[in-house]
Amino acid sequence: MAQLRAAAQSQPATDEAEQDDKAPDTKLYEELGELARFIDTTMKTLSEFSAPVSTSTEQLPQALSHLTNLKTMTEQGTHKVMLEVEAIQDNHIKLSGMLKELTLALQATQAAPAILQQMHAVSNAINADDKRLLDIMTALSFQDLVAQSVNKLVTILREVEHKLLQLVVVFGPYQKQAAKQEQDKASQMLKQLEATKNTSMDQDLADEILKQFGFN
Amino acid sequence: MPADPNMKILVVDDMSTMRRIVKNILKQLGFNNLEEAENGQEALTKLKADTYGFVVSDWNMPVMMGIDMLRAIRADESLKKIPVLMVTAEAQKENLMEAVQAGVSNYVVKPFTAETMQDKINKIFK
User: Fold this and answer.
1) Per-residue pLDDT tens listing for chain A (216 residues)
2) Residue B86, in any domain of the structure
3) Cβ neighbours of residue B45 under 8 Å, at least 6 residues apart?
4) The pTM is what?
5) Is B67 within 8 Å of B101 (Cβ atoms)?
6) What is the CATH number of the domain that holds B69?
7) Residues on chain B touching A145 (C-beta within 8 angstroms)
8) Which residues of chain A make contact with B114, given a CB cutoff of 8 A?
9) Residue numbers in B near A151 (CB within 8 A)
10) Looking at the domain assignment, is residue B106 inside a domain?
């Protein structure tokens, strides 16, 4: 546009040039018209996405809920396994104590070495299982990594939800050819959305926005 | 000096499963005086209220991150000598330099084994 303006200023002031002088304005006018038409077409195209976008926006809270449930379920399952592992660990402590006492008693009665060897073998087996139980326990730390990944997904989905709702608010009044009052309300909602950008959005606000634009 | 099995250890993590895992490992390693906190802020409150010999802390937590808690510990005259073992996820390895600069005693990358925990504790209390 600056080039057009510069071109218009550099025209010589002759009769012929006066005619040419109008040419850049006409060209500018045509370009502006084309630009307006392009924007209009783009707006129409984008507003056609409004319905599917709102459907996605409506479903996003469900997706967030599924993810949160996934985290809760893995957490509950992990605690259940931990509870059992801890119960076995406690039993092993008791068993080891009993074995120790039994071995000492057998030694006092001068029991056959084969019996004492068997007692020793049982004790070793318990110790080996303790090691396995500890391995199970540490392996359960996968749940923490799952939870962290889920939290990241939830953050991304909330961001997407924000963006989609912005699209609904921006193109909703355009599609409905809404009155100025309604467009002002849309601007207000955009501000509200912007205010919640760095926090988790109030679900009531999301529902209200969708409701305002005819998506219940 | 080897680690005192009776010293009070504070396990800091926002995930209850991780707190339980770390406490279980420490118990199997012979430590029985174990306390827990859900974030850095709660940990600082507990550390100031009692005498602790060792802190095992997660990095990524709400309210107060592990790194911020570590800086607060090192800045506090009464707490600055407490060894802090930082537990971090693989993706946060690049943050370890930051932890070293803040005065971390050692670190463990998740998921870790009991042997790794034992090794780190041995190195801290050697």
Assistant:
1) 444 445 445 555 555 555 555 566 788 877 888 888 777 777 777 666 666 666 666 777 788 888 888 888 999 999 999 999 999 999 999 999 999 999 999 989 988 889 999 999 999 999 999 999 999 998 998 888 888 888 888 888 888 877 877 777 776 655 555 566 666 776 777 677 667 665 555 666 666 666 666 655
2) yes
3) B37
4) 0.68
5) no
6) 3.40.50.2300
7) 89, 110-111
8) 134-135, 137-138
9) none
10) yes
Q: How high is the ipTM of this complex?
A: 0.79
8 Å CB contact between B67 and B95: yes
Q: Does a structural domain hold residue B89?
A: yes
Residue-by-residue DSSP string for A128-196: HHHHHHHHHHHHTTHHHHHHHHHHHHHHHHHHHHHHHHHHHHHHHHHHHT--HHHHHHHHHHHHHHHHT
Within a domain: B102: yes
Q: Which residues of A touch B113 (CB under 8 A)?
A: 135, 138
| Total domains, chain B | 1
Chain B, 70-99: which have a CB under 8 Å from a chain A CB? 89
Q: Do B25 and A78 touch (CB under 8 A)?
A: no
Contact B112 A139 (CB under 8 A): no
